[in-house]
Design brief:
homohexamer, disordered N terminus
């Protein structure tokens, strides 16, 4: 494991060229920020840049991938100019692939975050986790997520209540361990919502929206929310090049 | 506990610079007002200002948080310039965190409000409470919320009927104890509704809407409804700075 | 009980300044009119004016409240300049609060209307009643609302069929007793419908829509339908002051 | 029963001033026409005019009402200038009120139409009938509506399949008895559909749409479809006066 | 049965004046084309013209009607100038009425098509067939439509999977017997979709859309898709007269 | 089997005239690209061109068809100028028809891809596969797709979770075998989404959208996303002729 650097003014540098200035130095330490966008807008690229920045600063980083296999992720990162292999070898970066079929993926994430000492965490993407069913036990006064398959009540798969339970669980662990986190979320094309589950955006500390305008062949980044920071709401022009996203 | 001040003309000062004038002095005493907005519009900040004003006036305040842990809340308030620690120590302010997993959260809120003597109450946010399931007992003539887990009929989680039962329950307790209350509600981006549950807005005494225009980089506050007060319907320009929201 | 006045030409004065002229003298006697509006548009205020007018004319009035407690209603009315206490004491006005938890609220309303001799009835609001579940008994040829809890078939809570059964029941009783009635209904913001249940508007004799334009800071009243009366469809400008709503 | 008149050119006069000319003399004999409209657009008034015309021509008429009680219907007709009492006494007109609670209302309609010799039939309105549940028997090769309460399969209340079964049943009987029929249907405000059930419009022979423009204080009638007739699609201006609807 | 004519260049003449030219001679032989439209746009009329053309060319034709009874169909056709009686008598045209209540209507269609030697087939309309329930047998590896009522798994009535099963079944039979087919589908007013089931349009070889503009009193025909044919996408003006639809 | 050619710079030529240049030489080797479009926009034609190009380069190709029978596919391809018969005879191209009724179609696809050595794979279309039900076994810690019919839990047919499980399964196999793949998806007319299932677009490496403008009689192709490639977002004009689609 590498040295844990102190960042000045309680800010975590974003790793995106031009963005730190808009955020008074970077993400507030310990903030959980949602990265929202329709397909192909650069959500995973932002995660790569964020992790790369952490590696540069000697911070411990965790990348939780729910859709891409570890090797595919490393290859995609390579093509964009990010080389993660050495950081993985030196154990400064750990990449986990979530098998959504398993019933206790929350436990897996929980244990990994508690046992490690992560400065930066990325969950790419959040959406599958919030869709997982919850097996509950009616335990006298409490209705709690079950640790085994013995259940009496099941919350339906797509209920807002189940989503909220999952989210609070994940966010609580991240807050407890003081990880500065990025969560990506899928926005279906044509939807005006800020996340697929329509609840995350109210629970996180920050929201960054990535968008694109095909007719004008342009890409945009908007800081929709960032607790503890005075920020503009104006959409910024960006481009995707080698090294990732940069503000124009 | 502090001294209970009498406010002139039955009005409770809002704590938001410029808003009292638009409301003939403030919220009518005992009114329940909905604070509606999409993510990042300043709902929680309005709650902080409201509580801070109560502390200044020596009133007893209760802050019920359903999403943020107590320490996170206090830290976020600090960053904006509100220091709640001394009021908590002197027991003038009490902050409660609701564990939504528990089956009897309504009882928890009910007892707290009845046992205390609160002038100002904040519930941030209302949305999770209205989504909770209701375990009902078919008791001859009545169908009542169950006090234990013995049930015969369950209202489906997302029925408007369940929402209405929850809301009436909470509002009844607040009215009975004459607490002047703010309830925050999440409005998903792109929705034109005034609350997530689409029922609250008809049952409360007042509605304040917070909005934002990213293209123009501006924020707005609108008084949508306030029983017992003649008010304008025009959206007001606001800004978020140290000390919270102020009308421009 | 007070004297039952005869109104000229079979019309019941509305109590709203400027509206009687648009309706050829008032509501046709025995008509049931829907008062529709989004939150804060003045639906309850119209009911107050209607009842106040009835009291002035010495008519027997019934106010059925499904959301507000009796005392809150009386207080709110006071603040607007309507004093109902003396009419309640002299039994000219009766206010009922509906406990929606009870299984037989329809019976309660039915008995009250049949036993009294009401000229004017207000149901504020209709929406919760149409959402109530129906316990049915499959009785050979007929499927009827159950008088006890023994049922064999239940219509789902939100089916249009259940709504229609409730509505026809209430309307039938009112028609039978020849009460000139106002029913308020909640329209969620952004909806173009004329009632929450989307059925009432086809079954009633009249519809009055209250609306507002926040940008222009204006309020409107539209007579959407009134059987037995030739009327304009144009929206009218109104304002809310002491004494209630008045057409400009 | 009255004399059965022969109408020239196989056309049935509509009874609406100005409409016969647009339809080459009137409705084709035996046609089933949908009268569609949002609330208060004059659907029931058109039915009154249609029946009145039949009475004038000495034809046998049947008015099936699903929402209004017989006396209320007669009174409403009186106010508009239609007097049905004598036709009822002479048995030239029969008015039936459908009790939607009964399980076999289709049988009731079926028997009435088969036993009578009706030239003109009005069903006001069609919507409740298409919403009724269907109790089916799985009878080897056939799935048929049950004549008693013993069932094995129930089509869910709001399925398009149940709607289609109801509609085909009613339409088949009317076609068999060669009744020239009007069916009214409710269109919720803001909907662009042509009926509440969204199936009727494809099965009937004709569709007439009634609409209104509140801002311009105008009413419109459009012939959307009329099999066997060449017609304009243009919306016509109309007004509602004593004697009913007339084209301007 | 009549003589089976060979059509040049593998094209089947449409029977609609002006349309063959736009399609390089007509429908490609064996193509299945969807005729889409809102109510009253002429779908059934196009079917009449198509069949009439087949009769003229001495081809064997099958008309499957799901909504109109055989006699009503023949009468409607007569009024437009198509006389089918002689073709029916000479067995060149067969008209079938589908009783949607029967459980095995697919079998009925399947047998009719296999046993006959049809050049042209019309199914008017497709929509009810795709809504029929499917009784399935879980047979080891396969889930197949049941030939009797013994089932273990039922696909819900309105699932896209059930629709796809029905469609593939019908289309497979038609392709196997090399019938050049028209299938009509209902598009609810205001919908932008190309069929009621939203799946057909992807499985057929061609789509023709019929539309109308009431304000301008005009009718349109658009060739949305036609495999094996280069065609314009532009909407064409059409009119309905004696003899059916003709392009202007 | 033919010779496996090495493509320069790890790119797979698309086979569409003008597209390779926009993609830096073609699809990145091993990429999975979604071909999205409403009906009749040319999705299957793009697949033909892609396969034809593979045959020309001596690559092994697999065409999985879920909607069209093998012979129909070959005939349609012939009409456009693609002759696949010789490639099939020489075993360079294999066409599979998926029988969606079978419970283990995933296994079928999985085995075919693993046993063959395919450079290019086409799945036309993806939509039916994502709609298939999943029979799951609750196996202690894991919930896995069942290999037989013994199940304890079934994910409902239209849940996003089931879709995601199917997709990950298919994509994992394709990635493992390093097949450069095209998946077609149906977009219902009027929808702004990029796939029928609204999940695929987030999991694939590339998205190409085909569209059309009927009023202007034009067709468009847009590269919405392509991992590992810098590309324009601008829609390109295209036409469909003999030989398929070509950019103008």
């Amino acid at each position: 494991m590498g040295v844990k650097l102190n960042v000045e003014k309680g800010r975590i540098s974003t790793g995106i060229n031009g963005l730190d200035e808009l955020l008074n130095g970077g993400f507030p330490k310990g903030n959980i920020t949602l990265i929202s966008g329709t397909p192909g807008t650069g959500k995973t690229i932002i995660c790569f840049q964020y992790i790369e920045e952490g590696i540069k600063n000697g911070e411990n980083c965790l990348y939780i991938s729910s859709d891409q296999l570890i090797n595919d992720l490393i290859n995609d990162a390579n093509k964009l100019g990010f080389s993660f292999k050495s950081a993985i070898d030196s154990e400064q970066l750990k990449i986990i692939f979530l098998d959504l079929g398993r019933q206790n993926i929350h436990k897996e994430i929980e244990e990994e975050i508690k046992n490690g000492t992560y400065d930066r965490v990325v969950l790419d993407s959040l959406s599958p986790l919030t869709e997982a069913p919850i097996w509950m036990v009616n335990n006298g006064n409490e209705v709690i997520p079950s640790t085994n398959s013995m259940t009496t009540t099941t919350l339906p798969i797509e209920s807002i209540q189940a989503t909220r339970v999952h989210l609070r669980h994940i966010l609580a662990i991240l807050k407890e361990e003081k990880c500065t986190t990025l969560l990506t979320t899928e926005i279906p094309e044509g939807s005006r919502e800020l996340s697929r589950d329509s609840v995350s955006e109210f629970l996180v500390d920050g929201i960054i929206i990535l968008g694109l305008d095909t007719t004008m062949d342009r890409r945009k980044l908007t800081i929709r929310k960032m607790r503890g920071t005075k920020h503009t709401l104006k959409p910024m022009d960006i481009m995707i090049t080698q090294g990732g996203i940069k503000l124009l």
